[in-house]
Amino acid sequence: MRIRLDPWPVDTQDGQLTLKPFAGLVFNAETDRWAAIAPREVPSWLTRVLVVDGKRRMEARLLLDDEAGGLSLAGFGAYVAGAVDLCPHGSRQADLLKVVAQRVLAYSGDGGVTLEPTRLSPRNPHTGQLEYTPHAFAGTQLEGALGKVQRLMLDAEGDLSRRLAAALPLDEHDRAALPDTLVLQDGPVRIGGAGRAVLGCVKTLHTDYLGADRIGLLGTLKPGERTPVLRFRVGDQGGSQDSEGREQRFTWYVRLCDPPFYQHPLAGVMRLEMHAPEDSDFVPRAVLQVANLSGQLLCRLASTPHKDARAPQNLIPTAALEHAMDRAMGSAELVTRRIRSHLARELGQPTGAVA
User: Fold this and answer.
1) Residue 88 · residue 40 · CB < 8 Å
2) Which residues are in the NurA domain (predicted)?
3) What does the buried/exposed string (b/e) look like for 118-127 if buried means 16 or more CB atoms within 10 Å of the residue's CB?
4) How far apart are CA 223 and CA 200, in angstroms?
5) Which residues of 180-209 are buried (b: 16+ CB within 10 A; e: fewer)?
6) Which of 257, 84, 255 is nearest to 184 (CA)?
7) Domain assignment present for 257
8) Minimal CA–CA distance to 185: which of 204, 167, 165, 209?
9) pLDDT score of 262 more than 50
């Protein structure tokens, strides 16, 4: 028996490696030869790369009671979706974009209740006003409010990625179209986002799309090398026609660094995704170009363990963006105190005891 270390922190959800076999079908898209493909230089036509990520936070769970005695669940939450704008050739300084917090009053809409925006007045002239916009969720589950904030954050990420990315035609007649602006989006690409140059960067490997006969290649990849491009359908469960999935995706794997000998062989490997045209047997030239440059680009942006416990997959721009998003949402402790003071005033109680 050989024991290997998962390098990510033990408090990271699900760790870095919890592989479950993909239930659907995966097809060769680029080549039938399953072997490592060497990295290539980032081409001059790519002049702008944007790293997009989001963050969400629950700030208070609430229980609402109406005049008829009915009870329902709700919660105050916040989310941010932002971007880091950088030059892939290092010719200019990186900039932060769109890092503005949005606050949400998520509540169960099953009881027919309609809520007005909630404004939390500042405690002093320097703290500003907090405004929570109501958003209803279906059901009465305790996790409903958190799920609603998460959904709003993911939608904001997807919208931001689509707005910032260059157009990427996916039909066979536009094989020469090359994007000058590429978006690196944290996690898989979003449903409905086809036609834009968005590259999904999946840091944690949850699903095995390769099978036992192919996954061994990942452990032998050198930094910057990638696997051939594959194609699958999102949500494909195999078997019945009703479970064929919703959208087609291209996917491939890239190694960002050589792992130490004591870590498991997939440490430092990231899975990448792009939208695929429906029912096609070709890889658009632009997608192939992005796949070719992805290893070199991501190796340049990869973090190191002494700077980030989730290295190398948590890219340096992503970590910087996370810090900016934390600042945009503000101190969780101070926000909680503001919420308590607000509720005390609403209930007609002195604020000194709860502030």
Assistant:
1) no
2) 71-315
3) bebeeeeeee
4) 19
5) ebbbbbbbebbeebbebbbbbbbbbbebeb
6) 84
7) yes
8) 165
9) yes
Question: 149 with 79: CB under 8 angstroms?
Answer: yes
Q: Which helix (H) or strand (E) holds 240?
A: none
Residue 142 lies in a domain: no
What's the pLDDT tens digit per position in 9-45?
A: 776 666 556 689 999 999 999 999 999 999 999 999 9
**Residue at 213: amino acid letter:** D
Give the model's confidence band at 244: pLDDT under 50 very low, under 70 low, under 90 confident, else very high. low
Give 270-338 as a DSSP string: EEEEEE--TT-SS--HHHHHHHHHHHHHHHHH---TTT-TTTTTS-HHHHHHHHHHHHHH--HHHHHHH
Cα–Cα distances in Å, from 180 out to 33, 47, 106, 111, 299? 30, 6, 39, 49, 20
Look at residue 159 and tell me if it is in a domain: no
| Residue 172 lies inside a defined structural domain of this protein | yes
Domain that holds residue 262: 17-49+165-322
